[in-house]
Amino acid sequence: MGSITLKNVQKTFGEAKVIPSVDLEIKDGEFVVFVGPSGSGKSTLLRLIAGLEDVTGGSITIDGKDVTEAAPAARGLAMVFQSYALYPHMSVRKNIAFPLKMAKMEQAKIDKKVEDAARVLNLTDYLERRPSQLSGGQRQRVAIGRAIVREPSAFLFDEPLSNLDAALRGTMRLEISDLHNQLKTTMIYVTHDQIEAMTMADKIVVLNRGNIEQVGSPMELYNTPRNLFVAGFIGSPRMNMITGAYAQSKGAATAGIRPEHLTLSKESGTWKGTVSVAEHLGADTFLHLDVEGIGQMTARAGGEFGARHGDTVYLTPDESRLHRFDDKGLAIKA
Amino acid sequence: MATQNTKTLARLMMAPSVIVLLVWMVVPLAMTLYYSFQNYNLLTPMNVSFAGFFNYQYFYTDPAFFQSIWNTLVLVLGVLAITVIGGTAIALLIDQPIFGQGIVRILVISPFFVMPPVAALIWKNMIMHPGYGVFADIAKFFGMQPIDWFAQYPLFSVIIIVAWQWLPFATLILLTALQSLDSEQKEAAEMDGANFINRFIYLTIPHLSRAVTVVILIQTIFLLGIYAEILVTTNGGPGYASTNLTFLIYRTARLGYDVGGGAAGGIIAVVLANIVAIFLMRAVGKNLDK
User: Fold this and answer.
1) Is B69 on the interface with A (CB under 8 A)?
2) ipTM of the complex as predicted
3) Which of A20, A97, A271, B93 is the most buried (most CB within 10 A)?
Protein backbone atom coordinates (compact mmCIF):
# COMPACT_ATOMS: atom_id res chain seq x y z
CA MET A 1 0.00 0.00 0.00
CA GLY A 2 1.27 3.44 -0.75
CA SER A 3 -1.20 6.12 -1.67
CA ILE A 4 -0.10 9.63 -0.81
CA THR A 5 -2.26 12.73 -0.73
CA LEU A 6 -1.02 16.30 -0.41
CA LYS A 7 -3.60 18.92 0.50
CA ASN A 8 -2.74 22.60 0.22
CA VAL A 9 0.87 21.88 1.24
CA GLN A 10 2.90 25.04 1.76
CA LYS A 11 6.54 25.69 2.62
CA THR A 12 8.32 28.93 3.36
CA PHE A 13 11.97 29.38 4.32
CA GLY A 14 12.03 32.69 6.20
CA GLU A 15 10.65 35.21 3.71
CA ALA A 16 10.96 32.96 0.68
CA LYS A 17 7.82 31.12 -0.36
CA VAL A 18 9.28 27.98 -1.88
CA ILE A 19 5.99 26.16 -2.28
CA PRO A 20 2.92 28.44 -2.29
CA SER A 21 0.33 25.66 -2.31
CA VAL A 22 0.35 22.17 -3.74
CA ASP A 23 -2.45 19.62 -4.05
CA LEU A 24 -1.49 16.23 -5.35
CA GLU A 25 -2.89 12.73 -5.37
CA ILE A 26 -0.54 9.76 -5.80
CA LYS A 27 -2.15 6.36 -6.24
CA ASP A 28 -0.79 3.10 -4.87
CA GLY A 29 1.85 1.54 -7.13
CA GLU A 30 2.33 4.58 -9.31
CA PHE A 31 5.69 5.74 -10.58
CA VAL A 32 5.49 9.49 -10.19
CA VAL A 33 8.25 11.81 -11.39
CA PHE A 34 8.63 15.37 -10.14
CA VAL A 35 10.40 17.29 -12.84
CA GLY A 36 11.36 20.93 -13.11
CA PRO A 37 14.31 23.26 -13.45
CA SER A 38 16.58 23.91 -10.44
CA GLY A 39 14.83 25.98 -7.81
CA SER A 40 11.41 24.70 -8.81
CA GLY A 41 10.84 23.20 -5.36
CA LYS A 42 10.77 19.58 -6.52
CA SER A 43 13.35 18.39 -3.98
CA THR A 44 11.69 20.42 -1.23
CA LEU A 45 8.38 18.78 -2.05
CA LEU A 46 10.00 15.34 -1.80
CA ARG A 47 11.62 16.24 1.51
CA LEU A 48 8.27 17.43 2.82
CA ILE A 49 6.75 14.07 1.93
CA ALA A 50 9.74 12.30 3.55
CA GLY A 51 9.37 14.38 6.69
CA LEU A 52 12.87 15.83 6.50
CA GLU A 53 11.33 19.31 6.38
CA ASP A 54 8.33 20.56 8.34
CA VAL A 55 5.38 21.82 6.31
CA THR A 56 4.38 25.45 6.88
CA GLY A 57 0.75 24.67 6.13
CA GLY A 58 -1.51 21.98 4.74
CA SER A 59 -1.57 18.24 5.32
CA ILE A 60 0.09 15.07 4.05
CA THR A 61 -1.77 11.77 4.17
CA ILE A 62 -0.22 8.35 3.55
CA ASP A 63 -2.62 5.42 3.20
CA GLY A 64 -5.40 7.46 4.77
CA LYS A 65 -3.31 8.33 7.83
CA ASP A 66 -2.41 11.93 8.53
CA VAL A 67 1.40 12.04 8.81
CA THR A 68 1.87 15.82 8.61
CA GLU A 69 3.54 15.89 12.02
CA ALA A 70 4.99 12.36 12.01
CA ALA A 71 8.75 11.69 12.26
CA PRO A 72 10.45 10.54 9.03
CA ALA A 73 10.92 6.97 10.24
CA ALA A 74 7.27 6.67 11.25
CA ARG A 75 6.00 7.36 7.74
CA GLY A 76 7.08 4.03 6.32
CA LEU A 77 8.91 5.61 3.40
CA ALA A 78 12.42 4.89 2.14
CA MET A 79 14.61 7.40 0.42
CA VAL A 80 17.54 7.14 -2.00
CA PHE A 81 19.69 10.24 -1.86
CA GLN A 82 21.61 12.00 -4.59
CA SER A 83 24.94 11.36 -2.83
CA TYR A 84 23.69 7.83 -1.92
CA ALA A 85 24.40 8.74 1.75
CA LEU A 86 25.91 5.33 2.51
CA TYR A 87 27.54 4.93 5.91
CA PRO A 88 31.24 4.94 4.97
CA HIS A 89 32.54 2.93 7.95
CA MET A 90 30.07 0.06 7.50
CA SER A 91 30.29 -2.82 5.04
CA VAL A 92 27.65 -3.15 2.34
CA ARG A 93 25.96 -5.82 4.45
CA LYS A 94 25.77 -3.55 7.49
CA ASN A 95 24.59 -0.63 5.40
CA ILE A 96 21.69 -2.60 4.03
CA ALA A 97 20.94 -4.12 7.43
CA PHE A 98 21.00 -0.79 9.28
CA PRO A 99 17.27 0.09 9.03
CA LEU A 100 16.35 -3.44 10.11
CA LYS A 101 18.75 -3.28 13.03
CA MET A 102 17.19 0.03 14.05
CA ALA A 103 13.78 -1.67 13.87
CA LYS A 104 15.20 -4.28 16.32
CA MET A 105 14.58 -7.22 13.99
CA GLU A 106 16.08 -10.65 14.82
CA GLN A 107 19.54 -11.23 13.37
CA ALA A 108 18.54 -14.36 11.42
CA LYS A 109 15.70 -12.49 9.73
CA ILE A 110 17.96 -9.54 8.97
CA ASP A 111 20.55 -11.83 7.34
CA LYS A 112 17.95 -13.43 5.13
CA LYS A 113 16.48 -10.13 4.01
CA VAL A 114 19.89 -8.64 3.28
CA GLU A 115 20.87 -11.67 1.19
CA ASP A 116 17.60 -11.52 -0.71
CA ALA A 117 18.05 -7.85 -1.47
CA ALA A 118 21.66 -8.42 -2.48
CA ARG A 119 20.58 -11.15 -4.90
CA VAL A 120 17.97 -8.92 -6.53
CA LEU A 121 20.51 -6.12 -6.93
CA ASN A 122 23.53 -8.26 -7.94
CA LEU A 123 25.45 -7.26 -4.83
CA THR A 124 26.08 -10.71 -3.35
CA ASP A 125 29.82 -10.63 -4.14
CA TYR A 126 30.26 -7.20 -2.60
CA LEU A 127 28.54 -7.66 0.75
CA GLU A 128 31.74 -7.44 2.81
CA ARG A 129 33.17 -4.42 1.00
CA ARG A 130 33.08 -0.84 2.15
CA PRO A 131 31.23 1.78 0.08
CA SER A 132 34.55 3.42 -0.82
CA GLN A 133 35.58 0.22 -2.64
CA LEU A 134 32.53 0.26 -4.90
CA SER A 135 31.82 1.97 -8.20
CA GLY A 136 29.15 4.63 -8.56
CA GLY A 137 26.56 2.25 -9.94
CA GLN A 138 27.22 -0.29 -7.18
CA ARG A 139 26.86 2.37 -4.51
CA GLN A 140 23.60 3.36 -6.09
CA ARG A 141 22.40 -0.22 -5.86
CA VAL A 142 23.45 -0.44 -2.19
CA ALA A 143 21.41 2.69 -1.49
CA ILE A 144 18.44 1.08 -3.24
CA GLY A 145 19.06 -2.13 -1.30
CA ARG A 146 18.96 -0.23 1.96
CA ALA A 147 15.62 1.15 0.85
CA ILE A 148 13.97 -2.08 -0.30
CA VAL A 149 14.75 -4.19 2.80
CA ARG A 150 12.47 -1.93 4.78
CA GLU A 151 9.56 -2.88 2.53
CA PRO A 152 8.36 0.73 2.55
CA SER A 153 4.96 1.82 1.36
CA ALA A 154 6.72 4.16 -1.08
CA PHE A 155 10.22 4.84 -2.38
CA LEU A 156 11.51 8.37 -2.69
CA PHE A 157 14.37 9.06 -5.11
CA ASP A 158 16.13 12.41 -4.97
CA GLU A 159 17.97 12.86 -8.29
CA PRO A 160 19.60 9.46 -7.83
CA LEU A 161 21.31 9.26 -11.21
CA SER A 162 22.83 12.72 -11.48
CA ASN A 163 26.23 11.58 -10.16
CA LEU A 164 26.62 8.80 -12.73
CA ASP A 165 28.07 8.97 -16.22
CA ALA A 166 25.75 8.94 -19.20
CA ALA A 167 26.08 5.25 -20.08
CA LEU A 168 25.52 4.09 -16.50
CA ARG A 169 22.60 6.46 -16.14
CA GLY A 170 20.86 4.69 -19.01
CA THR A 171 21.45 1.28 -17.40
CA MET A 172 20.30 2.39 -13.95
CA ARG A 173 17.20 3.97 -15.48
CA LEU A 174 16.24 0.57 -16.83
CA GLU A 175 17.09 -1.14 -13.54
CA ILE A 176 14.90 1.21 -11.53
CA SER A 177 12.02 0.81 -13.98
CA ASP A 178 12.51 -2.94 -13.77
CA LEU A 179 12.52 -2.79 -9.98
CA HIS A 180 9.25 -0.88 -10.05
CA ASN A 181 7.68 -3.54 -12.26
CA GLN A 182 8.85 -6.26 -9.85
CA LEU A 183 7.91 -4.60 -6.58
CA LYS A 184 4.86 -2.68 -7.76
CA THR A 185 5.47 -0.20 -4.93
CA THR A 186 4.74 3.49 -5.20
CA MET A 187 7.80 5.43 -6.29
CA ILE A 188 8.33 9.15 -6.29
CA TYR A 189 11.30 10.24 -8.32
CA VAL A 190 12.77 13.73 -8.49
CA THR A 191 14.83 14.80 -11.48
CA HIS A 192 15.62 17.82 -13.59
CA ASP A 193 16.20 15.58 -16.59
CA GLN A 194 13.09 15.40 -18.73
CA ILE A 195 14.37 12.27 -20.48
CA GLU A 196 14.37 10.38 -17.15
CA ALA A 197 10.90 11.74 -16.51
CA MET A 198 9.54 10.72 -19.92
CA THR A 199 11.08 7.24 -19.92
CA MET A 200 10.27 6.12 -16.38
CA ALA A 201 7.10 7.81 -15.23
CA ASP A 202 3.52 6.62 -15.10
CA LYS A 203 2.70 10.16 -14.11
CA ILE A 204 4.79 13.29 -14.45
CA VAL A 205 4.37 16.30 -12.21
CA VAL A 206 5.91 19.38 -13.81
CA LEU A 207 6.92 21.96 -11.23
CA ASN A 208 7.93 25.56 -11.71
CA ARG A 209 8.66 27.97 -8.86
CA GLY A 210 6.87 25.74 -6.38
CA ASN A 211 3.69 25.49 -8.46
CA ILE A 212 2.43 22.43 -10.26
CA GLU A 213 2.20 23.40 -13.93
CA GLN A 214 0.70 20.15 -15.12
CA VAL A 215 0.16 16.55 -14.04
CA GLY A 216 -0.24 13.78 -16.55
CA SER A 217 1.21 10.78 -18.32
CA PRO A 218 4.36 11.39 -20.40
CA MET A 219 2.47 11.30 -23.69
CA GLU A 220 -0.25 13.60 -22.38
CA LEU A 221 2.35 16.19 -21.50
CA TYR A 222 4.03 15.75 -24.84
CA ASN A 223 0.87 15.93 -26.92
CA THR A 224 -1.20 18.41 -24.95
CA PRO A 225 0.97 20.69 -22.82
CA ARG A 226 -1.25 22.94 -20.74
CA ASN A 227 0.93 26.03 -21.05
CA LEU A 228 4.10 27.46 -22.53
CA PHE A 229 6.29 26.29 -19.65
CA VAL A 230 5.35 22.63 -19.99
CA ALA A 231 5.54 22.88 -23.77
CA GLY A 232 9.07 24.23 -23.54
CA PHE A 233 10.21 21.85 -20.80
CA ILE A 234 8.99 18.53 -22.14
CA GLY A 235 10.52 17.36 -25.40
CA SER A 236 14.07 17.44 -26.67
CA PRO A 237 15.14 19.50 -28.51
CA ARG A 238 12.78 22.19 -27.25
CA MET A 239 9.62 23.15 -29.03
CA ASN A 240 9.93 26.12 -31.40
CA MET A 241 7.91 29.08 -30.16
CA ILE A 242 6.69 31.38 -32.92
CA THR A 243 5.17 34.77 -32.21
CA GLY A 244 4.05 37.52 -34.57
CA ALA A 245 2.11 37.37 -37.80
CA TYR A 246 2.18 33.60 -38.23
CA ALA A 247 0.83 32.98 -34.71
CA GLN A 248 -1.88 35.60 -35.20
CA SER A 249 -2.96 34.00 -38.43
CA LYS A 250 -3.61 30.85 -36.38
CA GLY A 251 -5.55 32.83 -33.76
CA ALA A 252 -2.91 32.61 -31.03
CA ALA A 253 -0.35 34.82 -29.30
CA THR A 254 2.26 32.10 -29.55
CA ALA A 255 2.34 29.11 -31.83
CA GLY A 256 4.48 26.13 -30.91
CA ILE A 257 5.80 23.43 -33.21
CA ARG A 258 8.16 20.65 -32.18
CA PRO A 259 11.35 20.12 -34.20
CA GLU A 260 10.15 16.63 -35.16
CA HIS A 261 6.93 18.02 -36.66
CA LEU A 262 8.63 20.12 -39.28
CA THR A 263 9.06 18.68 -42.75
CA LEU A 264 12.31 19.66 -44.39
CA SER A 265 12.95 20.12 -48.05
CA LYS A 266 15.72 21.58 -50.16
CA GLU A 267 13.34 22.89 -52.85
CA SER A 268 10.21 24.46 -51.38
CA GLY A 269 8.19 24.95 -48.18
CA THR A 270 6.34 27.44 -45.99
CA TRP A 271 9.47 28.98 -44.49
CA LYS A 272 12.95 29.52 -45.83
CA GLY A 273 15.87 29.17 -43.48
CA THR A 274 19.65 29.09 -43.39
CA VAL A 275 21.46 26.37 -41.45
CA SER A 276 23.65 27.83 -38.66
CA VAL A 277 24.63 24.57 -36.97
CA ALA A 278 23.93 20.99 -37.98
CA GLU A 279 24.25 18.34 -35.24
CA HIS A 280 24.64 14.89 -36.74
CA LEU A 281 23.66 12.19 -34.24
CA GLY A 282 23.69 9.37 -36.75
CA ALA A 283 20.04 8.39 -36.81
CA ASP A 284 18.92 12.00 -36.57
CA THR A 285 20.25 15.36 -37.58
CA PHE A 286 19.25 18.43 -35.60
CA LEU A 287 19.39 21.58 -37.65
CA HIS A 288 19.58 24.97 -35.97
CA LEU A 289 18.25 27.43 -38.48
CA ASP A 290 17.84 31.15 -39.02
CA VAL A 291 14.36 31.38 -40.50
CA GLU A 292 13.26 34.48 -42.42
CA GLY A 293 10.61 36.45 -40.55
CA ILE A 294 10.66 34.15 -37.50
CA GLY A 295 14.18 33.87 -36.16
CA GLN A 296 15.91 30.89 -34.57
CA MET A 297 14.30 27.49 -35.06
CA THR A 298 15.33 23.89 -34.54
CA ALA A 299 14.27 21.08 -36.82
CA ARG A 300 14.83 17.34 -36.79
CA ALA A 301 15.85 15.70 -40.03
CA GLY A 302 16.71 12.13 -40.84
CA GLY A 303 20.30 11.07 -40.49
CA GLU A 304 20.71 11.00 -44.24
CA PHE A 305 19.56 14.58 -44.73
CA GLY A 306 22.80 16.22 -45.79
CA ALA A 307 22.92 19.82 -44.66
CA ARG A 308 25.85 21.95 -43.69
CA HIS A 309 26.44 25.37 -42.26
CA GLY A 310 25.18 28.04 -44.67
CA ASP A 311 22.85 25.77 -46.68
CA THR A 312 19.36 26.98 -47.49
CA VAL A 313 16.52 24.74 -46.33
CA TYR A 314 12.73 25.00 -46.60
CA LEU A 315 10.46 24.09 -43.68
CA THR A 316 6.81 23.07 -43.63
CA PRO A 317 5.05 22.65 -40.27
CA ASP A 318 2.63 19.77 -39.68
CA GLU A 319 -0.32 21.98 -38.79
CA SER A 320 -2.22 19.18 -37.06
CA ARG A 321 0.60 19.08 -34.47
CA LEU A 322 0.64 22.84 -33.95
CA HIS A 323 0.25 24.04 -30.34
CA ARG A 324 -1.50 27.35 -29.82
CA PHE A 325 -1.14 29.51 -26.71
CA ASP A 326 -2.98 32.70 -25.69
CA ASP A 327 -1.32 35.85 -24.40
CA LYS A 328 -1.23 34.43 -20.83
CA GLY A 329 0.74 31.45 -22.06
CA LEU A 330 -2.13 28.98 -21.63
CA ALA A 331 -2.92 26.45 -24.33
CA ILE A 332 -5.95 27.17 -26.52
CA LYS A 333 -8.11 24.08 -26.81
CA ALA A 334 -8.77 23.12 -30.41
CA MET B 1 59.27 17.08 -14.02
CA ALA B 2 61.76 15.06 -12.07
CA THR B 3 64.66 15.03 -14.44
CA GLN B 4 68.16 14.35 -13.15
CA ASN B 5 68.82 18.07 -13.33
CA THR B 6 65.92 19.23 -11.20
CA LYS B 7 66.54 16.48 -8.67
CA THR B 8 70.10 17.59 -8.05
CA LEU B 9 69.04 21.21 -7.86
CA ALA B 10 66.22 20.37 -5.47
CA ARG B 11 68.59 18.47 -3.18
CA LEU B 12 71.01 21.35 -3.24
CA MET B 13 68.31 23.88 -2.38
CA MET B 14 66.94 21.75 0.45
CA ALA B 15 70.32 20.93 1.93
CA PRO B 16 70.75 24.03 4.17
CA SER B 17 67.42 23.60 5.97
CA VAL B 18 67.92 19.87 6.34
CA ILE B 19 71.40 20.40 7.76
CA VAL B 20 70.21 23.07 10.21
CA LEU B 21 67.37 20.82 11.37
CA LEU B 22 69.73 17.91 11.82
CA VAL B 23 72.24 19.95 13.79
CA TRP B 24 69.44 21.37 15.92
CA MET B 25 68.29 17.87 16.78
CA VAL B 26 71.50 15.88 16.88
CA VAL B 27 73.73 18.27 18.84
CA PRO B 28 71.52 18.56 21.96
CA LEU B 29 70.83 14.84 21.86
CA ALA B 30 74.52 14.05 21.57
CA MET B 31 75.38 16.45 24.40
CA THR B 32 72.71 14.96 26.62
CA LEU B 33 74.00 11.50 25.85
CA TYR B 34 77.54 12.63 26.62
CA TYR B 35 76.68 14.25 29.94
CA SER B 36 74.59 11.25 30.99
CA PHE B 37 77.83 9.27 31.18
CA GLN B 38 79.73 11.94 33.17
CA ASN B 39 79.99 12.72 36.85
CA TYR B 40 79.15 16.39 36.51
CA ASN B 41 77.71 18.28 39.44
CA LEU B 42 77.49 22.09 39.35
CA LEU B 43 78.43 22.23 43.04
CA THR B 44 81.80 20.74 42.15
CA PRO B 45 82.21 21.84 38.52
CA MET B 46 85.94 21.09 38.50
CA ASN B 47 85.38 17.48 39.36
CA VAL B 48 84.20 15.98 36.06
CA SER B 49 84.89 12.35 35.31
CA PHE B 50 83.52 9.40 33.39
CA ALA B 51 80.70 7.74 35.32
CA GLY B 52 79.71 4.74 33.22
CA PHE B 53 76.11 3.79 33.90
CA PHE B 54 76.13 5.22 37.41
CA ASN B 55 73.85 8.14 36.49
CA TYR B 56 71.30 5.79 35.00
CA GLN B 57 71.47 3.55 38.00
CA TYR B 58 71.10 6.56 40.29
CA PHE B 59 68.09 7.88 38.44
CA TYR B 60 66.49 4.45 38.18
CA THR B 61 66.91 3.65 41.86
CA ASP B 62 65.55 7.04 42.91
CA PRO B 63 62.34 6.18 44.84
CA ALA B 64 60.62 9.03 42.99
CA PHE B 65 61.37 7.47 39.59
CA PHE B 66 58.49 5.01 39.36
CA GLN B 67 56.12 7.39 41.07
CA SER B 68 56.96 10.06 38.51
CA ILE B 69 56.36 7.66 35.63
CA TRP B 70 53.05 6.68 37.17
CA ASN B 71 52.19 10.36 37.64
CA THR B 72 53.09 11.09 34.01
CA LEU B 73 50.78 8.30 32.90
CA VAL B 74 47.90 9.45 35.10
CA LEU B 75 48.39 13.03 33.97
CA VAL B 76 48.40 12.15 30.26
CA LEU B 77 45.49 9.71 30.43
CA GLY B 78 43.45 11.94 32.74
CA VAL B 79 43.81 14.97 30.51
CA LEU B 80 43.13 12.89 27.38
CA ALA B 81 39.95 11.46 28.88
CA ILE B 82 38.64 14.85 29.97
CA THR B 83 39.52 16.63 26.73
CA VAL B 84 38.22 13.95 24.35
CA ILE B 85 34.92 13.38 26.16
CA GLY B 86 34.45 17.02 27.13
CA GLY B 87 35.62 18.21 23.73
CA THR B 88 33.08 16.01 21.97
CA ALA B 89 30.31 17.25 24.23
CA ILE B 90 31.19 20.91 23.75
CA ALA B 91 31.66 20.44 20.00
CA LEU B 92 28.18 18.87 19.77
CA LEU B 93 26.77 21.83 21.69
CA ILE B 94 28.41 24.64 19.73
CA ASP B 95 27.65 22.87 16.46
CA GLN B 96 23.98 23.77 17.07
CA PRO B 97 22.79 26.98 15.47
CA ILE B 98 22.54 29.55 18.28
CA PHE B 99 22.44 33.30 18.61
CA GLY B 100 25.96 34.76 18.86
CA GLN B 101 27.58 31.58 17.59
CA GLY B 102 30.79 33.32 16.49
CA ILE B 103 31.42 34.95 19.88
CA VAL B 104 30.58 31.75 21.75
CA ARG B 105 33.08 29.82 19.65
CA ILE B 106 35.84 32.39 20.22
CA LEU B 107 35.17 32.30 23.96
CA VAL B 108 35.30 28.52 23.99
CA ILE B 109 38.59 28.51 22.15
CA SER B 110 40.25 31.34 24.11
CA PRO B 111 41.84 29.27 26.93
CA PHE B 112 44.21 27.91 24.32
CA PHE B 113 45.69 31.40 23.88
CA VAL B 114 46.60 31.78 27.56
CA MET B 115 50.23 30.92 28.33
CA PRO B 116 50.59 27.82 30.54
CA PRO B 117 52.28 29.56 33.54
CA VAL B 118 49.72 32.39 33.45
CA ALA B 119 46.82 29.98 33.28
CA ALA B 120 48.25 27.91 36.12
CA LEU B 121 48.81 31.01 38.29
CA ILE B 122 45.25 32.20 37.72
CA TRP B 123 43.91 28.79 38.66
CA LYS B 124 46.17 28.67 41.69
CA ASN B 125 45.44 32.10 43.10
CA MET B 126 41.96 32.95 41.87
CA ILE B 127 40.10 29.70 41.48
CA MET B 128 41.58 26.91 43.61
CA HIS B 129 43.01 28.96 46.46
CA PRO B 130 41.55 27.66 49.75
CA GLY B 131 41.22 31.18 51.17
CA TYR B 132 39.91 33.41 48.42
CA GLY B 133 39.46 31.15 45.41
CA VAL B 134 36.18 30.78 43.57
CA PHE B 135 35.87 27.11 44.55
CA ALA B 136 36.38 28.04 48.20
CA ASP B 137 33.64 30.68 47.93
CA ILE B 138 31.27 28.13 46.44
CA ALA B 139 32.11 25.64 49.18
CA LYS B 140 31.56 28.29 51.85
CA PHE B 141 28.24 29.29 50.27
CA PHE B 142 27.05 25.74 50.76
CA GLY B 143 28.48 25.73 54.27
CA MET B 144 31.23 23.24 53.51
CA GLN B 145 34.90 23.20 54.38
CA PRO B 146 36.88 24.69 51.44
CA ILE B 147 39.19 22.20 49.77
CA ASP B 148 42.90 22.96 49.70
CA TRP B 149 43.26 21.65 46.18
CA PHE B 150 47.02 21.65 45.78
CA ALA B 151 47.63 20.06 49.18
CA GLN B 152 44.85 17.49 49.11
CA TYR B 153 44.58 16.60 45.41
CA PRO B 154 47.80 17.92 43.84
CA LEU B 155 47.94 15.72 40.75
CA PHE B 156 44.20 16.00 40.13
CA SER B 157 44.46 19.81 40.35
CA VAL B 158 47.21 19.83 37.75
CA ILE B 159 45.12 17.55 35.55
CA ILE B 160 42.18 19.98 35.76
CA ILE B 161 44.34 22.96 34.83
CA VAL B 162 46.00 21.20 31.89
CA ALA B 163 42.68 19.77 30.72
CA TRP B 164 41.19 23.27 30.79
CA GLN B 165 44.00 24.45 28.56
CA TRP B 166 43.72 21.60 26.06
CA LEU B 167 39.95 21.35 25.93
CA PRO B 168 39.69 24.08 23.25
CA PHE B 169 42.14 22.24 21.03
CA ALA B 170 40.13 19.02 21.20
CA THR B 171 36.89 20.95 20.77
CA LEU B 172 38.19 22.76 17.70
CA ILE B 173 39.39 19.62 15.93
CA LEU B 174 36.25 17.66 16.82
CA LEU B 175 34.00 20.54 15.80
CA THR B 176 35.47 20.71 12.32
CA ALA B 177 35.10 16.95 12.07
CA LEU B 178 31.46 17.20 13.13
CA GLN B 179 30.82 19.85 10.52
CA SER B 180 32.22 17.64 7.80
CA LEU B 181 29.64 14.94 8.55
CA ASP B 182 27.47 14.65 5.45
CA SER B 183 23.98 15.97 6.20
CA GLU B 184 22.43 13.49 3.77
CA GLN B 185 23.92 10.66 5.86
CA LYS B 186 22.24 12.07 8.95
CA GLU B 187 18.97 12.33 7.07
CA ALA B 188 19.33 8.81 5.72
CA ALA B 189 19.86 7.52 9.25
CA GLU B 190 16.85 9.50 10.38
CA MET B 191 14.73 7.87 7.67
CA ASP B 192 16.17 4.48 8.63
CA GLY B 193 14.65 4.94 12.05
CA ALA B 194 17.76 5.82 14.05
CA ASN B 195 16.99 8.14 16.96
CA PHE B 196 19.44 10.74 18.27
CA ILE B 197 21.39 8.28 20.42
CA ASN B 198 21.65 5.68 17.65
CA ARG B 199 22.74 8.34 15.17
CA PHE B 200 25.44 9.39 17.63
CA ILE B 201 26.66 5.82 18.17
CA TYR B 202 26.50 4.52 14.59
CA LEU B 203 27.22 7.67 12.62
CA THR B 204 28.87 10.43 14.63
CA ILE B 205 31.35 8.39 16.68
CA PRO B 206 32.75 6.40 13.73
CA HIS B 207 32.97 9.64 11.80
CA LEU B 208 34.87 11.30 14.66
CA SER B 209 37.31 8.42 15.17
CA ARG B 210 39.93 9.88 12.88
CA ALA B 211 39.75 13.30 14.52
CA VAL B 212 39.95 11.70 17.97
CA THR B 213 43.08 9.87 16.82
CA VAL B 214 44.66 13.16 15.78
CA VAL B 215 43.72 14.76 19.11
CA ILE B 216 45.18 11.85 21.09
CA LEU B 217 48.43 11.75 19.10
CA ILE B 218 49.12 15.48 19.21
CA GLN B 219 48.08 15.94 22.82
CA THR B 220 50.14 12.99 24.04
CA ILE B 221 53.26 14.52 22.53
CA PHE B 222 52.71 17.75 24.43
CA LEU B 223 51.31 16.23 27.63
CA LEU B 224 54.37 14.02 28.16
CA GLY B 225 56.37 17.21 28.64
CA ILE B 226 54.05 19.15 30.98
CA TYR B 227 56.24 21.26 33.23
CA ALA B 228 55.22 24.91 33.67
CA GLU B 229 51.86 24.16 35.28
CA ILE B 230 53.54 21.96 37.88
CA LEU B 231 56.31 24.45 38.57
CA VAL B 232 54.03 27.39 39.37
CA THR B 233 51.38 25.45 41.30
CA THR B 234 52.58 22.49 43.36
CA ASN B 235 56.27 22.54 42.57
CA GLY B 236 56.03 18.78 42.26
CA GLY B 237 54.79 18.28 45.79
CA PRO B 238 53.69 17.59 48.33
CA GLY B 239 56.55 15.14 48.39
CA TYR B 240 56.60 13.71 44.88
CA ALA B 241 52.78 13.56 44.59
CA SER B 242 52.60 15.72 41.48
CA THR B 243 56.06 15.17 40.02
CA ASN B 244 56.07 13.79 36.50
CA LEU B 245 59.14 12.58 34.62
CA THR B 246 59.91 16.00 33.13
CA PHE B 247 59.68 17.63 36.50
CA LEU B 248 61.85 14.96 38.11
CA ILE B 249 64.56 15.71 35.55
CA TYR B 250 64.25 19.38 36.41
CA ARG B 251 64.51 18.54 40.11
CA THR B 252 67.62 16.42 39.60
CA ALA B 253 69.41 18.76 37.24
CA ARG B 254 68.46 22.16 38.56
CA LEU B 255 67.58 21.69 42.22
CA GLY B 256 70.19 18.96 42.77
CA TYR B 257 72.73 20.66 40.46
CA ASP B 258 73.32 17.19 39.05
CA VAL B 259 73.82 17.68 35.31
CA GLY B 260 74.83 14.05 34.71
CA GLY B 261 71.82 12.64 36.56
CA GLY B 262 69.48 15.02 34.78
CA ALA B 263 70.92 14.08 31.41
CA ALA B 264 70.47 10.39 32.20
CA GLY B 265 66.86 11.12 33.16
CA GLY B 266 66.41 12.98 29.89
CA ILE B 267 67.62 10.00 27.89
CA ILE B 268 65.30 7.68 29.84
CA ALA B 269 62.42 10.08 29.11
CA VAL B 270 63.25 10.06 25.39
CA VAL B 271 63.27 6.26 25.35
CA LEU B 272 59.96 6.06 27.25
CA ALA B 273 58.37 8.66 24.98
CA ASN B 274 59.40 6.61 21.97
CA ILE B 275 57.91 3.46 23.49
CA VAL B 276 54.65 5.33 24.11
CA ALA B 277 54.77 6.68 20.56
CA ILE B 278 55.18 3.18 19.09
CA PHE B 279 52.27 1.86 21.12
CA LEU B 280 50.14 4.84 20.14
CA MET B 281 50.88 4.45 16.47
CA ARG B 282 50.08 0.76 16.69
CA ALA B 283 46.88 1.25 18.66
CA VAL B 284 45.33 4.33 17.12
CA GLY B 285 47.46 5.07 14.09
CA LYS B 286 45.56 2.42 12.12
CA ASN B 287 42.64 4.83 12.08
CA LEU B 288 44.60 7.25 9.95
CA ASP B 289 45.21 4.77 7.14
CA LYS B 290 41.56 4.44 6.17
Assistant:
1) no
2) 0.79
3) A97
